[in-house]
Amino acid sequence: MQCPLLYRFRVIDRLPEKPSEAATRGTLVHAVLERLFDDPAVERTAPKARALIPGQWDRLLESKPELTELFSGDTEGERLSRWLGEAEQLVERWFSLEDPTRLEPAERELFVETELESGLRLRGVIDRIDVAPTGEVRIVDYKTGKAPRPEYAEGALFQMKFYALVIWRLKNVVPRRLQLVYLGSGDVLTYDPVEADLERVERKLLALWEAIREATESGEWRPRPTKLCGWCDHRAVCPEFGGTPPVYPLSVRPAEFAQDVQGRMGQVRAEAGQPVALEGP
Length: 281
Hints:
Layout: H1 4-12, H2 21-36, H3 46-63, H4 78-97, E1 107-115, E2 121-131, E3 137-143, H5 153-171, E4 177-182, E5 187-191, H6 195-218, H7 255-272
Parallel strand pairs: 3-4
Antiparallel strand pairs: 1-2, 2-3, 4-5
Helix pairs in contact: 2-3, 2-4, 3-4, 5-6, 6-7
């Protein structure tokens, strides 16, 4: 949805990407918040959470040795120390937004998978699921960045509605609440979905998958320039920046056949009633 060409580079070409400090910090903070719930409720304190950071960082390095590249040349350890300090601040802020001594998550870092009637398979990993004594389900996701402006909130909620759809199809239960916890700005964004919301998401996903399948077969992956381009690892091979993409590794169907399927694709999108993000201007 962000950029069709980026999807191709990552999923089809599998071009390597350098580890990022921001993304790795997010992974570290997520690991700390997950592990904190291993302890009894009374021991879930901010000092205890901070104390988990060095050990979780060591575990990350052990599982992904390439992360050492992040601080290459940092002989005095100043950048690493500052980076770990920023992770501590994010963890501490969480305690001003939620009280872990009053929470007993039903699931943490839960891998979920379901197959829709269409045959489309959905997968994801949910940060936390809370279940009330009365059975209501809350899906919680931690974000280490800042909350988006109101006009961009819908995009942020799409991921949560995706999770809610999977849970609905798996358990036949519509989650009572979706909650995004933004540690970077100290905001909490909530949304209470209904079945009609999740049905719309399902239609959008079906249309999106049709667009992905069409682009895969035709080889037409269009770039969509945004402000995020500045952080992209693939500008050197992106035509928007004067680059040339690598040779397409999959077979491409004849152009006349692609035009015929494109016509049918238009009907799929119209029935879905939702714009397809992969379609360029």
